[in-house]
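Cross-posted from the bioinformatics board.
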Amino acid sequence: MTTDDQKRVAAEYAASLVESGMLVGLGSGSTAAFAITALAARVEAGLEITCIPTSERTAALALSHGLPLVDFTYPIDIDIDGADLIERRTLTLVKGLGGALFREKIVAAASRRMVVIADRSKLVERLGPGIAIPVEIAAFGQETVLARLTQAGVRPVLRRNGGTPFVTDGGNFIADCTVATPFDAPSLDARLKAITGVIETGLFVGLASEAVIGHEDRVEVIQR
Amino acid sequence: MTTDDQKRVAAEYAASLVESGMLVGLGSGSTAAFAITALAARVEAGLEITCIPTSERTAALALSHGLPLVDFTYPIDIDIDGADLIERRTLTLVKGLGGALFREKIVAAASRRMVVIADRSKLVERLGPGIAIPVEIAAFGQETVLARLTQAGVRPVLRRNGGTPFVTDGGNFIADCTVATPFDAPSLDARLKAITGVIETGLFVGLASEAVIGHEDRVEVIQR
């Protein structure tokens, strides 16, 4: 299967877990978009759900597919979202390449069950040196936040969109923070979040309850 | 001296610490407003400074007084700001009644010297049970953030402005979090900030370098 096929079969598997009456968190990004398509097909066939989108883009996509959206309420029954990296043993995730990490994390944290879906390239045995963790930071004072991220042991680069900083749905910036040395994800997450001006990190620790991975020839389900 | 007189003399003392060439952080609130007036008088008399405001309201006030404002740069030489509570021994502050805590904290953290100014009613021997700590939280998903604040041991109340939630300059909400039991400020700050959806807390630990307190009959300067 191609990478897109792997994403699609993982997304369809996750969509099959949804039952009528559920409140569903809709992730953002290319893999989550496959889940939205799959959910829309099930709704067309009679599934009755309400959905909470994690980004403006996802909201627009869901509306175009006729999915019923509601304002944030909780607990959310199931959240289906992609990830940039998934650590097999812990299901710790790195998210935020798409820039929607803050709402994605709030929805994940408010969900009884978070199903992360991905093609096999996203699954790693261990999150280690060399990875980059997206961190959402305040636009105001971003220079000092970048300096403090450096002091905390990562190498931050302000994400740009052409000549100007990339701006999130919340009006903030993203610093992509490369980690050079081995790290413990929970303590790194706490250290980065503690910095004044850091709004949220793209490390999702203890949030995913299961991962659905599309491989070349099969779908693998990993429970935490 | 009246409370306003106490604020004014503390503000004038702090303004006297400013020298030409300095980059000055301008706090928000009624006491910081006295500092802006005092700085404006010194600028009128030839003092050359540039200023960074911590709120839209402060920016407007500073402009109306002819103070030159610049976009955020750092390090800031001196930050002059008020506080709702000041703990004498540690100079730990509680801030955020005015709703500008996020930018105030970023500016304080980016300053070589932070001078907190207040009337004597704000000075306490010890920050203890019964105080309320303003916490800036994401508007999206605020219900879950309030629930998690409760789990973290405080009693949050969403701040309202008439019938609707109070909205900060950054578009966020404020939860006023009453602390019922004795606490260690640094660990409480870390515990609250770690919650997904918490943008910043109004506990300022290790940021104020000195406090200038207006008493009935004198100005008291407390160094940390």
